[in-house]
Amino acid sequence: MAAAPAPLPAAVAGWWERVNGSPAWQDGIFGGLAVLYGIIAAASFIQVARIQRRVPEYGWTTQKVFQLLNFVVNGARCSIFACRRLVQQVNPPIFQHVILDLPVLAFFTTYAVLALFWAEILYQARGLMTDRLRSGFYTINGIVYALQGFLWLCLWWNPNHSMLVISKLFIAGLSFFTALGFLVYGGRLFLMLKYFPLDSKGRQQKLREVGKVASICFCCFLARCIMMCFNAFNKEADLDVLYHPVLNFFYYLLVEILPSSLVLYILRRIPAKLQISQYQPLSSG
């Protein structure tokens, strides 16, 4: 008869509880998250400055807006994690939810800009007008922020567990439809590029770029959807408290830090500088 496996040592079995309950570990993990977000924010700001210096005459292009929004989102996350203990002490508690949830909405808007850009390429390739896409983008964002604001008001008026679950499920649903948007528009753009002539300039590079970014964004938002659903119905997976730093670290690393880093690296190229052709003025004689 096989011997029963030896029980794990108490030191190993209680590691999770000791780390989560240790103020030193909490400060270290949240400080580490703040540093990682700060690095991404700095990289995005540098990209905005590089694009502005290279082609100032282009104005606010989609690429520049995307990089600026990344700077804002990651800068906000950096500040929140750097001051995590102060955030936990904010009263009334509804403002804690606003501070922690608002960057999620901003993250959605940031990557919705990228999906909008791909949708505009598809429409222009088919000779269709893109005005409705932009108006739809603004309308959808307005509805999303209005609904989340309404949920915050309800949570303030009646702060019970059911309202908190509904608020988290709203974020989960938003993440699911964003993932679906990347699957649809990213997939359609990928297929369109795939059937371009083989000798088209930049075809292979764009094909790889769209395929990688669409896959990363789809997995990122789908993972957020799953984890937010789990978070909504399991108190042991609460991300809004100080004593779950390890869970916070893996959650934000998987759904924001790694995807943002990879996407910014893939989209690191900036426009080429415009070349003004040299000419000789005509003689008045």
TrEMBL record:
The chain crosses the membrane at residues 28-48, 68-87, 99-123, 135-158, 170-193, 213-233, 249-267. Keywords: Membrane, Transmembrane, Transmembrane helix. It comes from the Eukaryota. It comes from Urochloa decumbens. It holds the Pfam family THH1_TOM1-3_dom. The keyword Disulfide bond does not apply. Belongs to the plant tobamovirus multiplication TOM1 protein family. This is THH1/TOM1/TOM3 domain-containing protein.
